[in-house]
Write a structure and sequence with these properties.
Strand content of chain A: under 5%
CATH class of the largest domain in chain A: Mainly Alpha
Order of helices and strands of chain B: HHHHHHHHHHHHHHH
CATH architecture of the largest domain in chain B: Orthogonal Bundle
CATH topology of the largest domain in chain A: MetI-like fold
Strand content of chain B: under 5%
Largest sheet of chain A: none
Number of helices of chain B: 15
Largest sheet of chain B: none
Radius of gyration of chain A: 26 Å
Low-confidence stretches of chain B: 1-19
Helix content of chain A: over 70%
Oligomer: heterodimer
Number of strands of chain A: 0
Number of helices of chain A: 14
Distance between the termini of chain A: 61 Å
Helix content of chain B: over 70%
CATH class of the largest domain in chain B: Mainly Alpha
Radius of gyration of chain B: 26 Å
Chain lengths: 310, 292
């Protein structure tokens, strides 16, 4: 085989080519994705940092000037839009995350043992997860419509006063958290179910034999063993919750409502860039936002490490 | 009911602990069934509500007494496919979804193999970054640069930018998939005279069909659902479904029936895919998360 190939000059060229490919295989495999990441992610981030130091605004062809850190100062001293938006982003993320983790853990434990129709139940849980977020927003917009929505029909049935939900500036953000919980709790459930299925049975059995009740076994065996998986779910969910955009834009529009009651940092940045064409200011805001995301992820990672060790 | 009672009160009067435990077990079992039913209903009722509203006349949507009893109509779907021309938007979403998925596979599968076999961990850090960065921060430079070369509004720009969503997904899923394929198979192929690249193409890839299916399905769904990039970078002709539905609400009075029909048109295809490919979707969504 090899002598045959060697006698054919084209074959030997082919062999040499294959050898060269094999010798550099790692880089040949990875190069396309490196180029992609470089061109479409690293370079744009660099460009965003550059724009954040300029007064770029209006038409994209308009020349712009270098203004130093002015945009950053403008945002960090802005108590009308920036800080409230940062507060809302944190509030939304923390509340949604905590509710989703608690509910997700409860549902995962509920669905853990096999039962008839388990497959079907898992499919139903999958549905909110794959539904297009914008369409989900529209769906809830109708359900939470104050006069004709299903939500207030239920409230009336329960003898409770009708609520404004999304249209009430005091309730809009909480209602959006509810929508996020509805759509993403299943994600936590799936991750935790996958985690639960990998847990060893022996410690639980041993504790049962020793007379530990269900709560004790959950608190002292299942929970500590599951802690790393809960940590992963928390990190995954918080990354996405911080950046929530689709449902807010779909239900509250640009600016997060008439008095910006649902305006998060992502919504604020989008409006600055693509409603008002303030590219420089928007870029500075996004860099600040990005730093906040990194900081909160580091905090979560530290928490997770601590939680795993205990 | 009486059978349950017989079960509780009858049999084995001497064994004390089973007698004491049984009612508790039955209560716990019933509570579990109720709990599971409540969970299913909580996730399904909104979707059923949306589906029902899409078959109602606007007059009936507004009427709380006609929640379930109404004369179904297809008028809303007429509006969606007729006046709103959703057929064209479906085509756009499919073209962009398939393009972004195919390109993500071509770039992402080799990269995942490289990461899994050559331990190129720095690449995973980059791809994690792609998850963390807010999409808006990429949109500004993209919009700046692409509009200067008149690339905005094309299918090309949508496919390229949706890669930002689909490629990290493909790499994450395929890396954990390749990690699960024993290296002995490739080594055997190499001993038989195959090159490394040959072993990858002829031995590993054919074994990877389930992983490729998982990542294809998920990246298509994520591209289909993506709203932000097309919101800025598409135009009248290349608009995708999520952008098209938002235009429904920009009218003075909302056409609720039409809006729900549009929402159904967008979400139902993805849900049907999820129904039939449940195993793949679940394994793809949870890939990597349980590794700690």
């Amino acid at each position: 085989m090899s002598s045959l190939a060697a006698s054919d000059p084209r074959g030997s060229f082919g062999n040499r080519a294959v050898n060269w490919i094999d010798a550099h295989l790692k880089w040949i495999l990875i190069a396309p994705s490196v180029i992609f990441v470089g061109l479409l992610i690293v370079f744009p981030i660099g460009y965003t940092i550059f724009l954040s130091l300029t007064d770029a605004a209006g038409a994209v062809t308009r020349p712009f000037r270098f203004v130093g850190l002015k945009n950053y100062v403008t945002w960090l001293t802005d108590v009308e839009r920036f800080w409230p938006a940062a507060g809302r982003t944190a509030y939304f993320t923390v509340l949604a995350l905590v509710i989703e983790l608690v509910l997700g853990l409860a549902i995962a434990l509920l669905l853990r043992k096999t039962f008839r129709g388990q497959g079907l139940v898992r499919v139903f849980i999958l549905l909110p997860l794959v539904a297009t977020p914008v369409a989900v927003g529209m769906m809830w917009l109708l359900i939470f419509e104050p006069t004709i929505g299903f939500a207030n029909t239920v409230m009336k049935f329960l003898g409770l006063p009708a609520q404004g939900w999304l249209s009430d500036s005091g309730q809009a953000l909480n209602t959006l958290i509810f929508i996020d919980v509805w759509q993403w709790t299943p994600m936590v459930v799936l991750i935790l179910l996958a985690g639960l299925s990998t847990l060893p049975e022996e410690p639980d059995e041993a504790a049962r034999v020793d007379g530990a009740n269900a709560w004790q076994r959950f608190r002292h065996i299942t929970l500590p063993l599951l802690a790393p998986v809960i940590g992963s779910a928390a990190i995954l969910r918080s990354i996405d919750a911080l950046k929530t955009f689709d449902i807010i834009y779909a239900t509250k529009g640009m600016g997060g409502g008439s008095s910006h009651e649902a305006e998060t940092l992502n919504i604020l940045a989008y409006g600055q860039a693509f409603q008002f064409s303030q590219y420089g200011k928007a870029s500075a805001l996004l860099i600040l936002f990005f730093l906040m995301i990194i900081i909160s992820l580091l905090l979560l990672a530290i928490l997770r490490k601590k939680g795993t060790r205990v | 009911m009486s059978a349950t009672q017989a079960l509780v009160t009858g049999a084995r009067p001497r064994a004390t602990s089973p007698r004491r435990r049984r009612p508790a077990v039955i209560v716990a079992g019933a509570a579990r069934v109720v709990g599971i039913a409540a969970v299913v209903l909580a996730f399904l009722i909104p979707l059923i509500w949306m589906l029902l509203a899409s078959f109602k006349r606007n007059l009936d949507v507004v009427d709380p007494s006609k929640v379930f009893s109404f004369t179904p109509t297809l008028n809303n779907y007429d509006t969606v496919f007729g006046a709103q021309d959703f057929g064209a938007f479906i085509v756009n979403s499919i073209v962009v979804g398939i393009g972004a998925t195919a390109l993500a596979l071509v770039i992402g599968v080799p990269a995942a193999y490289g990461i899994a076999r050559f331990k190129a961990q720095s690449m995973t850090a980059f791809l994690l970054m792609a998850r963390v960065i807010p999409g808006v921060s990429l949109l500004i430079p993209w919009y700046f640069l692409f509009s200067q070369i008149h690339f905005v509004g094309t299918y090309g720009v949508l496919i390229l930018t949706h890669l930002f969503v689909t490629m990290p997904l493909v790499v994450a899923i395929m890396t954990s998939f390749f990690d699960g394929i024993p290296t002995e198979l490739e080594e055997a192929a190499q001993i038989d005279g195959s090159s490394r690249i040959g072993a990858f193409v002829r031995v590993v890839l054919p074994l990877s069909v389930p992983g490729i299916a998982t990542s294809s399905i998920l990246s298509f769904i994520f591209s289909w659902n993506n709203f932000l990039f097309a919101l800025v970078l598409s135009n009248q002709e290349t608009r995708t479904l999520p952008v098209a539905i938002v235009n429904f609400t920009s009218y003075a009075s909302v056409d609720w029936g039409g809006l729900m029909a549009a929402a159904v048109v967008i979400t139902v295809p993805v849900m049907i895919v999820a129904l039939f490919a449940q195993r793949y979707v679940v394994s793809g969504l949870t890939a990597g998360a349980t590794k700690g």
